[in-house]
Design brief:
With 395 residues, the chain is of the alpha/beta class. The protein folds into 2 domains: 3-108 and 151-195 and 266-372, 4-Layer Sandwich (Metallo-beta-lactamase, Chain A); 213-243, no CATH class. It is 26% helix and 22% strand. The chain contains 10 helices and 16 strands.
């Protein structure tokens, strides 16, 4: 029996999913297994290090492809937790790559206001990064992770590598025409988000007095002024400290705006609807609801920041499914999956396992519920009854 498989890897702080879809050509009757890789990221506190535990993830992806090109790579958004995977030992051949609309080389020419806001957020990020470099004591709590994850220069460099590696790169926004943007003959793909204008997701940032001074040649220093004559020194320095307390809040706003530009797409196959939501946050879900794109789904990929609110879950994972089929949710880290257990079967790769597999059987032909495979260490095996490169196995 044909089955669609979602393999969720234990990528620690990041997301990596491999979706293998038996795709039948109605004209020829030939079934080909199409592979979609949704993100390949692993974010670490060490900027220059690569977690050795992530190497088996990409090695397993290559094993599943069996030398065939990857049909589609979806980069949900340009955070290092989604694109900072180490290079595999052999090149990953890509047919199609999906990136957000704002990653298009001509985005600034087409969307001036959104591009201006994006440039302002990046300039603020640069200031906050320099400030934390000059005052290491300010980089406490979640600040180092926020600085690393939002390093747009490194993310852009990896996205550019992705563009060069793919036969065709596409830049997506809601309701984009997907004609010739993927090779599927049978499965249907739809993009729910983001909006093409990133200003829809621009969060509020707070002005901060960082005291940075830039000199010709690019050198940056920190200037701490003294109190004016007649002003209490203690009160003056407390005021400076208070004006710099927005550092963490601004980084959170920058981070949220980037996450909300995630590509959110559904894949429909033989009666199943699967939703891959990237790191879409509250603002993105709100816009999707306003645009009336939310639909009940049988599968939800949960972002590493947690699950959407109850009103959104009522729309996409209602307590009672209309068709009686089991619903599932997966997360690479388990953030927020406990909230979903009253609505669906929620899972994450068990500790020590490389991945967990979720199988969706062809219930249009046989009424068999989906099943969760036992999570196991890395090993190469294809879908039952189908070759890795496509086509049916001979008896």
């Amino acid at each position: 029996m044909a089955a669609l498989r979602v393999r969720t890897y234990s990528a620690r702080f990041g997301d990596t999913l491999l979706v293998s879809v038996p795709d039948q050509d109605a004209d020829t009757g030939l079934t080909t297994v199409r592979h979609v890789l949704v993100d390949a990221g692993n974010l670490l506190p060490d900027e220059d290090g690569v977690d050795p535990a992530f190497h088996p993830v990409l090695e397993d992806v290559l094993a599943q492809l069996g030398g065939a090109p990857l049909d589609l790579y979806v980069l949900a958004h340009e955070h290092l937790g989604h694109v900072k995977g180490p290079p595999p030992r052999e090149p990953l051949k890509l047919r199609h790559a999906w990136l957000t609309a704002s990653a298009a080389p001509d985005y600034a020419e087409q969307h001036h206001e959104s591009a201006r806001q994006l440039a302002e957020r990046r300039a603020l990020y640069d200031d906050l990064r320099e400030y934390c470099r000059l005052r290491p004591e300010a980089a406490r709590g979640s600040v180092p992770s926020l600085l690393l994850g939002n390093d747009y220069r490194k993310a852009e460099a990896r996205a550019e590598f992705l563009r060069r590696s793919a036969e065709r790169a596409h830049y997506l926004s809601r309701d984009a025409s997907l004609m010739e943007m993927h090779p599927f003959k049978e499965a249907t793909l739809k993009v729910w988000a983001p909006e093409v204008e990133t200003r829809e997701y621009a969060g509020r940032v707070f002005p901060v007095a960082l005291g940075l001074e830039r000199r010709p040649g690019g050198e940056v220093s920190l200037h701490v002024p003294g109190p004016p004559a007649g002003v209490d020194a203690s009160a003056f320095y407390n005021l400076l400290k208070w004006r710099r307390q927005g550092t963490g809040d601004d980084l959170i706003a920058i981070d949220a705006a980037a996450k909300n530009t995630s590509i959110v797409f559904s894949l429909e196959w033989r009666g199943w609807r699967l939703l891959f939501a990237g790191d879409a946050g509250a603002r993105s879900w709100k816009v999707m609801k306003q645009r009336d794109v939310l639909r009940p789904v049988h599968f939800l990929q949960v972002g590493d920041h947690g699950t959407p609110d109850e009103a959104i879950l009522d729309a996409i994972l209602p307590m009672e499914g209309a068709d009686g089929r089991q619903r599932y949710a997966v997360s690479s880290e388990g953030n927020g999956v406990s909230r979903l257990r009253s609505r669906c079967t929620a899972s994450t790769p068990p500790k020590g396992a490389l991945y967990v597999d979720l199988m969706f059987e062809d219930v249009e032909r046989q009424q068999v519920p989906p099943r969760l495979r036992r999570a196991v260490p890395a090993r190469a095996h294809g879908l039952r009854g189908l070759t890795r490169g496509g086509g049916k196995r001979r008896a």
